[in-house]
Amino acid sequence: MDTTMDENTFPHYKADVIVHFYRNEMLTGAEAKNFTKSDITPTPKPESIQRLYMRVLQLLFGFRPELHYMMPLVENVQYPSMQEGVTPIMSLYLSMCQFLPMCRVYDFQMNDLLNPKAKRTISILSGIMNFLHFRNLRHEMSSEYQQAYKADVDKLRSCEKGIKEAEQKIEKLTTIPAEQQAESRELCAALTELQSKMNHEYQEVNAINEQLAELKTELAERSQKLNQKKVEVATVKENLAKLKSQIVESPEELKNEKEKMKEQVKNTKQSKELTEERWVELQMKVQMINQHKGDLKNVYKLLQDLQCGMDKMNGQQEEIHKLENFSENRKKELKNLVTEEAQLKRALTLKMDKVSKQQIRRQKNQEMKQQHVQTLLGEYDKVHQKRDYMLNQIQEIKSDKQQIKTKIQSLRDDCKLETEKAQTIYDQLSVMLDNFHTRIEDHIHSSRDAMEKMKAHF
Description:
By secondary structure, the chain is mainly α.
């Protein structure tokens, strides 16, 4: 037996730990104060161990200690008073035999209640402690699981509220009120017209910019040519001064050179006039371009305003898109939460079914116990009635017995008298018989003598 107790997988606690645990968790009041280490070691006290087992059964199964003392009587049980002292121990033994396999203790015996040993009681109590620790841990896990489920349900409800609010906001942002639909249509039409005008003006501005670029290139070329001609004039003047200093001036050559110079000056004047006229035309065109620039600035301001409006619309669309993405993510989370909720509901339904089945079983067991108790009480009442009836019969029998004893005593007295009379008669008869025998013997002797005489005579 001890080898099987040593093979258990649960840890064996010390006596101090066991006493501390059972005083704090199981026992209350005076029982907790009176329960000490001496109740377990070195020689366990059967009464304290039995009381402790009863409290364990009361905590786990609601089996009160008073129920152990109820005797399951049957009509044919003889001498029920002799079984009243055995019933609590037998009931406790049977209930512990049903409970201890849950604690991985399979070799519980009657000696563990009537004559417990320290090692076995410590192993049994440590097994019960291990079961209680496991029970408390599972209870905490189930409570945490229920709290997490409640938190998930609250999150799911908050997510549903947020999704509904986001959908309402999206509807408000996407749907245009009936009062502003006409204005929105007019604004859309105006925007399309402005866009078409802006495109046309952009084309015109691009054409003007191209013309300006061409004119600027022409001006640059003309200015380069003027600079070249100025440089040539300067070089010619320098050459003339050098020639004047070097060469003896002849009147004919001077005239020819002067004429050439006059022609060059005329040509330069004509080119200068042409350039000035071209410059005036370019200035006029630049003024026109500046006017167009002012118009373009106004148009650009309008375009900026439209761009701001478009940016706002794009921002609103981005917000709508974000809200749609947020709603999609929340819907996905909702689906995941719904699946988790369904799984949790299934697990809860399974647990509730198990709990309901256990409750139904407990109710049935309680009802069976109550019916059994009621039947036992009815049988007990019947037995008590029969017992009273039997006691009355026994008393009557005792009275009859007493009467019979008195009669027997009287008969004995009569018998004594009659035996004494018979003894006297017997004595008399024995004396008479002895006398008769003596007479017979005398007669026989006399007859023998007579026969011998007769023989002798014959």
